[in-house]
Amino acid sequence: MKLYWQALFLLFLLAAVVILKFNHVSLPFYWDEAWAYGPAVYEMYHHGLSLLPDALPTDLSRGHPLLFHFSAALWMKIFGTGVFSLHCFAMAIALSLLVVIFQFAKYFLSIQTALMASLLMGVQSLFLAQASLLLPEMFLSLWIIVSLLFYLKGKYALYAISASCAMLTKETAVTLLLTVVCFHLIFQKKKTFNSLLLIVPFIPWIIFTLLQKHYHGWYFFPEHIGFLNFSIVHIADIMENYFSLIFIYYGRNIIFFTALAALIFVIIRKQWKNIFSNEISMQTFILLCVFMAVFICFGGINFYSDRYALPLLAPFLLCTSFVVVNCIRKKAVLYFLVSVFLFTGIYYSYSYETTSDHNLGYIKYCRTQKQCVDYFISNKWQDKNIGTTFLMRYYLNNPASGYVTEENKMLHVTQTVNDKTEIVVLLSSENDNDLEQFVIREKWTLFKIFSEKSAIIKVYKKV
User: Fold this and answer.
1) What would the pLDDT profile of 256-299 be if each residue is shown by its tens digit?
2) What is the pLDDT of residues 16-69, one digit of tens each?
3) How many domains does the chain have?
């Protein structure tokens, strides 16, 4: 396939994603964006860019490495400080990931795999949701694929740099480092002096944790340490969550079982050597599978959130696309299957929605919350005593959430109610039994409802 057509394909794919996401980049922040990452990036922008642990208060940094925050704040210095600008930063990362997936597959698997994997990535709900959110998982996913690309090319110095960037984005990048070191020890017969570069990415992370101890008195954020659970039941449950989300849910079971069936078929027919005739393709496939296994096992001991699984999505699609492309030789059958995969991905992206930020369901909640906050502003309720849920408190009171400004924010917002409370706001995306029981018990009046499908906000006032 000529470079011209490759460039045209990528241009079409990137343009399609931009069109699909264009109306989403102007939305306010949602969930972890609103109370953690958005405020943290603004804090760094106003008080100076730095990668040192003391650059942010610990309630904003949560003990994480700060390359993502640093990069977003630097983007703000160049392109502006609004929510739209920061969501464009997120979009730039997502589009870069699509390009890197294509190039990775083209170099080490096949051009057909590159076309299929990048195309399928562009229609996954997990990717589309995260593509315009100011969250670090897309950034981490990008650095992981870039690091694997440099490693397989034998450019260990560039691997050391990119893997260090991954480690300074989020701690789960240690799975990348462990995967590469173990793979290299087992599969690379020639160990050169340059191989020592593979352990270099551990160094900036170790330095960061030592500085963390110096500044804050702990190596890892105490609250996160409290989430660690080494029980067999917990580990098995979390591993199942990761596996199910990536391999089964949102229509990906069709991709997985098609690839699995095709692989079993060629093994039975003793034709597997035709698939892995290219040694670099075989090593790439094994490396990606090892990474997924290590990532899922490591995730088993930690707190689970659906968006944390994003770094698994590209390796999964690369492996399954490679198997399908190489096992199914009839072009008509292959084109039919790819069409089914694409249709299924699009269908689930726009039909299966929840309150979470790992699918496009978050959009209607964002819009509903914006309508509610705008209503409060238009009624000049800045001095009202408002009781509401954890997240809504940030939406009403914190300008960094993207809903209010310093001039029109609500001044008296709490998560509790008392004799002074005048308004109670309940969200369907956040269950607060205490507030719900309060308005029922005290027989408060349901004054206003904002809704879009399952996204419902109820505003109560005293009788």
Assistant:
1) 999 999 999 888 887 767 677 788 889 999 999 999 999 999 99
2) 999 999 999 999 999 999 999 999 999 999 999 999 999 999 999 999 999 999
3) 2
Tell me the C-alpha distance between 347 and 316, whole Å.
Answer: 19
92 and 153 assigned to the same domain: yes
The domain boundary residue, chosen from 297, 320, 351: 351
Same-domain status, 338 and 457: no
Residue 356 lies in a domain: no
Placement of tokens 């205490």 in the chain: 434
In terms of Cα–Cα distance, which of 335, 341, 326 is closest to 110?
326
pTM: 0.94
Find the distance separating the first CA and the last CA of the chain, reported in whole Å: 71
| Structure tokens given for 361 | 């369901």
HSE, side-chain direction, 13 A CA sphere, residue 244 = 9
**412 touches 376 (CB < 8 A):** no
- Which residues constitute the domain of residue 151? 3-351
Residue from 112, 106, 193 nearest 152 by CA: 106
Q: How far apart are CA 324 and CA 320, in angstroms?
A: 6
Query: Are residues 432 and 341 part of one domain?
Result: no
Report DSSP state, residue 34: I
The answer for residues whose C-beta is within 8 angstroms of residue 190's C-beta and 6 or more apart is none
For 373-382, which contacts have Cβ atoms below 8 Å and span 24 or more sequence positions?
373/403, 373/404, 375/448, 375/450, 375/459, 376/410, 377/404, 377/408, 381/410, 381/423, 382/408, 382/409, 382/410, 382/411
